[in-house]
Amino acid sequence: MNTQSNWLRSGKMLSNKTIVLGVTGSIAAYKAVEIASQLTQAGAIVSVIMTEAATEFVTPLTFQAITGRRVVTEMFDLTSEFSIEHVRLAEAADIVIIAPITANVIAKLAAGIADDMLCCTVLATKAPVLIAPAMDANMYDNPITQDNLSKLKARNFTIIGPAWGRLASGQAGLGRLADINDIIGAICQTLGKNGDLAGNHIVVTAGGTREPVDPVRYISNRSSGKMGYALAEAARDRGAKVSLITTLASLIEPIGVDIVNVNTAQEMYEAVRNVVPQADALVMAAAVADYRPASTAKDKIKKTDAGLTLKLELTPDILGSIKGDFIKVGFAAESNSLIENAKQKLQQKELDLIVANDITATDSGFGADNDRVAIIDPEGNIESLPLLPKREVADKVLDKVAELLSGR
Ligand code: CTP
User: Fold this and answer.
1) Buried b vs exposed e over 31-40: b needs ≥16 C-beta within 10 Å?
2) Ligand 1 atom 4: the closest Cα is on which residue?
3) How would you classify the pairing of strands 163-166 and 172-176?
4) Taking residues 239-244, what's their average pLDDT?
5) Could you give the domains of the chain?
6) Is 235 exposed, middle or buried (0-12, 13-18, 19+ CB in 10 A)?
7) % of the chain with per-residue pLDDT over 90
8) Under 8 Å between Cβ of 245 and 268
9) Which of 265, 320, 333, 352 is the most exposed place for a label (fewest CB within 10 A)?
10) Residue percentage of the chain with pLDDT more than 70
11) CA of 320, closest atom in ligand 1
């Protein structure tokens, strides 16, 4: 599982963004505490507005302690100056997210009823509004709720979830609050939708390919896939349409990204070839196996005293062989002669950029959350970066991709 927390995964995306977090009276209200905490850790200015019902589930003090900011509730005297707080928040907000939102508050918003601080804020804001429903599965399924959600969707509200799973009733169904990673991912995607990659389609590959030896064994490498996932999330958060071709089903799937799961180099080659004709850039962060077993045994290979020799054959060189009218970015993970080897690959594979990664550097490379890389272009310019979180490396690479795309 990708253990990277959202504050690391979102990079600088949320830093200093004003986020209004509305919390309504659902059993899932306790999960809003974690959302507030993760957004605050990521550098956002989080102002929480709670409905009266929400305060039955979680205390305002909890949110106040976590966000370091005053929490707006219905308990404030509506005749005091604090009653116009919602107007100030509505204006200051970069985004409003209501998580969880109940069927009742969905109905009120769909009808334009503004009889509490939260609904007043939503009606008064020009910022994008995201809602993450949480309720009983039958309530969610009810045509009245569905109609109300359709109305809000038609008004440009973004609806996240709900997810399928165990509900407060003890039954399983569609009605659980969406995963927190999806909620935070959707916030980042919405905030960045007019970013410098808007209108571009970026294809990213991730993970080490797996070349089968027999039904239970494969040849692979130590790639964690984190760099590719960081690139996919960063491109999404700059407005791009993103296709992520990955060998790893175990990492947290980024919301808002088209995911294609593959295993072998051959499958990755075919998946890339299918999608690049419509793409503006291909970023090959995957560690593609250079060799695969010449044949795959149908049955599990049995141990013998004679030992075992595997005959290997070359896999297709994806980056080297797929050509077209798109920006090509490669990665070179090297243990020696970093810059020379990377430059050679840049030339041989006719790339627009190569990211050279010294896998012998401490805390960098395979499996680490950080990388120390140099970005090299065909003119021989080298930008050597310090040790940075993978998301920040991804953004530096995409700065160059955006520059190249804008120059086309
Ligand atoms: N690559 C590819 N297809 C392959 C092998 C590599 O598309 N069959 C891509 C990688 O995704 C990476 C770049 O080419 O972006 C360089 O990968 P690397 O394994 O370092 O290069 P190789 O050409 O395989 O050279 P070597 O393994 O000899 O260092």
Assistant:
1) bbbebbbbbb
2) 317
3) antiparallel
4) 98
5) 6-191 (3.40.50.1950), 201-406 (3.40.50.10300)
6) buried
7) 85
8) yes
9) 320
10) 95
11) 7
